[in-house]
Amino acid sequence: SAPSLASSDGFLQCIREKIPSQLLYTQCNTNFTAVLASSVRNPRFFTNTTVRPIFVITPNDASHVQAAVLCGRWQGVRLRVRSGGHDYEGLSYRSARPEVFGLLDLGNLRTISINQWEYTAWVDSGATIGELYYTIAKNNPEVAFPAGECPTIGVGGHFSGGGVGMMMRKYGLSIDNILDAKLVNANGELLDRATMGEDLFWAIRGGGGGSFGIVLSWKVHLVQVPPKVTVFSIAKTLEQGAIDILTKWQDVGPSLPSNLMITVMLSGQQAAFRAMYLGTCSSLVATMGEQLPELNMTSADCQPMTWLQSTALSFITFSSNNITLEEALLSRTTSLSTFTKVKSDYVTRAIPKAAWKDIFSWFTMKGAGLIVLEPHGGLMATIPTAATPYPHRSGVLYIIQYIAFWQGDGGVAATTWLGSFYDFMGHYVSNNPRQAYVNFRDLDIGQNVVADDVSSSESGKVWGERYFMSNYQRLASVKATADPMDYFRNEQSIPPLLPVP
Ligand code: FDA
After folding, report:
1. What lines the ligand 1 site, CB under 6 Å?
2. Whose CA is nearest to atom 10 of ligand 1?
3. CA of 355 to the centre of ligand 1 (A)
4. What is the ipTM of this complex?
5. Nearest atom in ligand 1 to 437's CA
6. Using omega within 30 degrees of 0 as the cis cutoff, is the peptide bond preceding 59 cis?
7. CATH for 228-305+335-445?
8. Where are the beta strands (DSSP E) in 238-347?
């Protein structure tokens, strides 16, 4: 039955006996709003009409998480879990529908311990990827971890959904480098890989956050990087041949040596080619001369730096600013000024040159945002579709991230642009299903329907096959074993595939 405010009283009574009182914030607490806002990344989900949690718990021990799940199950109060709060639809801390729920914010659980002999680390979900990068590289600058590009992203949500980043062509996604995990399941039990079993361990590495339990900690395999990497950023306008280079890049980008990743950002009437190379300037110039001479990349474009420095470069501007590495990677402050809405696509056949002219015309329109193209290929193409829930492997040329952003009341123009441009792009991208990336969460592609207090597997299939393709069915089966009552639930959680009665 639907949880009521009365059952939330029961929950609070239950939890007060089990955790220190300063870790619990009810709506009456003067710090409630500040704690809730602490990692809200997108002001779209921090308005007067946002459905907010009725309490926030900030555990600093696994036993607090277990207690919250046990009290929640007992009193019928659902929990949402937040690590870094970067979910593009805010599902970690708000509900899209009226719902009584509590928030478990893992920000206090952020220990990172490195085993330098084993090339492994245990990282808690509440750490950010900036903290992870910093801790690893400070211990040994030739050791790294493949993950995404914004330092404030939380490990918990990021690893749950994949982890696309500048080293994926060489080392795969974050999830391809996870060796073990500690998870609190729907019965409040604390499990590791051995006790959760391989099916559940498979599902939590890429099946999306918020479905299978609360992952407290991950054991990761660390990778090697040279003492210096080389990066460049070269922007080309239409007059400078952006379309020809882009058209060729679509085939070259995914087939380059795996230690070279070149992404493209389209905005306005230009394409910015941005590269990270695990090697020296001279060999990069040689490779570029052979593979993509049209870009005219020369040694003057090379920016040698440590891998750690490369992770701190701003994703959007790619210009070194006047803040320290520590400030760039360790700050948890997020600004609530820019509203965003994101969508994603995968391209499996190069888009014809003529079409790029039409695509560029979209960037002159009112409300226009930007798109980022990230090539796959390399190691990504060799990992079988079913190895992890992330199915977009062999055959994918690149992923497109569409970003609409606005301030103040620009939302209608920006989201209208995004929706129409996405419809237009349907001609050129993967179809049947039109694929999407779960970490670029998009509620437009479908939301669960709840019947008899359980999310229906049929409704999940609509969006689930777009994120997970043939892996959706296995995820829904794992959910049926791990959480048949559908306790861990949100608008896009994996529904349990229950046997037909
Ligand atoms: P958040 O805390 O919001 O959680 C996301 C989801 O996971 C929610 O459903 C939540 O309930 C669940 N969850 C969180 N912690 C959990 C836990 N411990 N156990 C189980 N479930 C948990 N992606 C990418 O691959 N590469 C990139 O380069 C980027 N770049 C990027 C930049 C910016 C500015 C943003 C806002 C986002 C990205 N992303 C990205 C997307 C990012 O990977 C995605 O939003 C992650 O889910 C964020 O993880 P957080 O822990 O911050 O999210």
Report:
1. 41, 80-88, 91-92, 106, 125, 148-150, 153-154, 156-158, 160-165, 209-210, 214-215, 439, 490
2. 92
3. 33
4. 1.00
5. 25
6. no
7. 3.40.462.20
8. 260-267, 270-277, 303-305, 339-347
Candidate of 103, 104, 158, 159 to mutate for ligand 1, largest count of ligand atoms within 8 Å of Cβ? 158
Spatial distance between the Cα atoms of 119 and 250, rounded to a whole number of angstroms: 34
Minimal-distance CA residue to ligand 1 atom 32 = 150
Tell the residue number behind the tokens 């037909």, with chain if given. Answer: 500
Per domain, the residue ranges of the chain are 5-108, 112-224, 228-305+335-445
Nearest residue CA, atom 29 of ligand 1? 148
Tell me the CA–centroid distance for residue 464 and ligand 1, in Å. 17
CATH class of the region 5-108: alpha beta
Q: Whose alpha carbon is nearest atom 8 of ligand 1?
A: 92
Distance 439 CA to ligand 1 centre (A): 6
For 42, 370, 448, the CA distances from 335, given in Å and listed in that order, are 8, 20, 30
Ligand 1 centre to CA of 152 (Å) is 10
Task: Please give the chain's pLDDT, 501 residues, in tens.
Answer: 455 666 799 999 999 999 999 999 999 999 999 999 999 989 999 999 999 999 999 999 999 999 999 999 999 999 999 999 999 999 999 999 999 999 999 999 999 999 999 999 999 999 999 999 999 999 999 999 999 999 999 999 999 999 999 999 999 999 999 999 999 999 999 999 999 999 999 999 999 999 999 999 999 999 999 999 999 999 999 999 999 999 999 999 999 999 999 999 999 999 999 999 999 999 999 999 999 999 999 999 999 999 999 999 854 444 445 688 898 899 888 778 899 999 999 999 999 999 999 999 999 999 999 999 999 999 999 999 999 999 999 999 999 999 999 998 999 999 999 999 999 999 999 999 999 999 999 999 999 999 999 999 999 999 999 999 999 999 999 999 999 999 999 999 999 998 776
Q: Please give the distance, rounded to the nearest whole angstrom, from the Cα atom of residue 6 to the centre of ligand 1.
A: 32
Q: Does domain 112-224 have CATH number 2.60.120.10?
A: no
Q: What residues contact residue 29 under an 8 Å CB cut-off, 6+ apart?
A: none
- Edge-to-edge strand ranges of the sheet holding 101-105: 24-26, 55-57, 101-105, 78-82
| Exposure on the CB side of residue 76, measured as CA atoms within 13 A | 9
